[in-house]
Design goal:
596 residues; alpha/beta; TIM Barrel; eight-stranded parallel barrel; two-stranded antiparallel ribbon; 16 helices; beta-amylase activity; carbohydrate metabolism; GH; EC 3.2.1.2; Beta-amylase
Amino acid sequence: MAMNLGHQIGTLSGKQIPTEFAAGEQPSSTTASPSAVWKSPAGNLRSNSPQENASPPMLTPPLTPNSAGEWSYLINLPILRPDLSVACQAFATSSPLEMTEEEVAGTAEWTDGGRKDEKKGVSVFVMMPLDSVTNGNTVNRKKAMNASLHALKSAGVEGIMIDVWWGLVEREAPGAYNWGGYTELLDMAKKHGLKVQAVMSFHQCGGNVGDSCTIPLPKWVREEMEKDSDLAYTDQWGRRNYEYVSLGCDSLLVLKGRSPVQCYSDFMRAFKDNFKHLLGDTIVEIQVGMGPAGELRYPSYPEENGIWKFPGIGAFQCYDKVGCCIMQYMLSSLKAAAEAAGKPEWGSTGPTDAGHYNSWPEDTPFFKKDGGGWNSQYGEFFLSWYSQILIEHGERILSSASSVFEATGVKISVKVAGIHWHYGSRSHAAELTAGYYNTRFRDGYLPVAQMVARYGAVFNFTCIEMRDHEQPQDALCAPENLVRQVGLATKEAQVPLAGENALPRYDESAHEQILKASSLNIDGSSNDREMCAFTYLRMNPSLFQPDNWRRFVAFVKKMNEGKDSRRCLEQVEREAEHFINVTEPFVQEAALALMP
């Protein structure tokens, strides 16, 4: 009797995968050896955007400022050919192949979804679609999701990453949490034996790179932001950014009697209480959102409405208003810091000669390499304050998360943006506007790593897949050097480093670069240190295309083997080719389940 999809994929991964049965249906007793499946075969980008309210070319101190659908690909997936279906049934009912002792030993090493018994490698997780849970708090296309999770498990993936949207769960009223879709989705992950990285997404979805849907902040939060627009980040031209509540309000009771940090803490506590039976087993990591796109940064380069375009330097986000005390809003904090430094004239506003969103460093008095304000006494003061209050914001939320999830067995992680453009310039302008005080003369990532280390958390970094030569060199992009710097900073701070790819990539060059970066062979003395995990962006139409899927399976297997493996990626890909040929009918059958 032919095995059903769950049995087929279970056979391939070397582990039985639970399957739903119809009423009265009995599970099949048919089995097959995983060794019969996984057997090696023989043998110039400058923007032309208008200079919006450009400031006069003066050095600092500052002048007075001027006032859905990710599932659509399923419709076009090819239908399983009849001959493949017959071959699938024949394979499923055939006897296990005889193997040599050496082959048996090699197979025994891979017993759980392509993972070694003695774990030494980098676990691979896959990001789920942003709209995995619908506005109606249900799993978006449950049948499609179930089949996709089968396929990921068969490839040896460790688990998945899920955005838990504040704007969906607590949408209608403060403290009214609807976990409906997430309860179902997390149960599905558990059924398939997949681990979960749950992202506490306290930001808006929409307006950033790769955002394919729109999920605003909770309705009641937006209402408060409309009443007091200074709850939003503000640039020097008075433009508000509503992706994330400004850190200037962290401790103010501005959200229906609660502060933003209290709201985040209550949300995480409610999540823990609702999913405590999964914590430490299925849910193994909580990534805590701390800014736009879930990253610890300012919204300095918003793509929404074409405000910013790569590789512009972005803009500072600290021009709200002065409140009645130091704890109110960002300019109040700046004013207090300036007075403490004996320079009260520096506290009225941020820089106003730092260009606009799409400027380049040398176009601005503040960021230019020779005599720029960034390297002045004022620049050092302002940038130290701007970066420090961002770190303090992260620490407030991380402290809360650590308290909430104490003794649950889950890791806590913080995501930091990989801002690689203009990295080769002296000022590192794009990093400075985002809140990372990183220049040619100062390490801006070590203080962040040290903050993360204080709470035993994981430092998660992006742009791991990028090579320097692939990026525009006139913008002095240097992602490889940036990743190296972050690797050294996390090593010094003794904090685990995890990675993500910043953009969807399915080519061997990107996979090779991820393998290289994840090995953390940075300074010749990394020894056994590797990234603690890698999260692949993202489960989407392209991932399941035959060539991409073949390369992905080989990539996952190579990541699982670890950096001490002596086998080249090409050899692993040859094994993957055999694996893909066998599993293609199963993946196609899963694809059929995705169709309406």
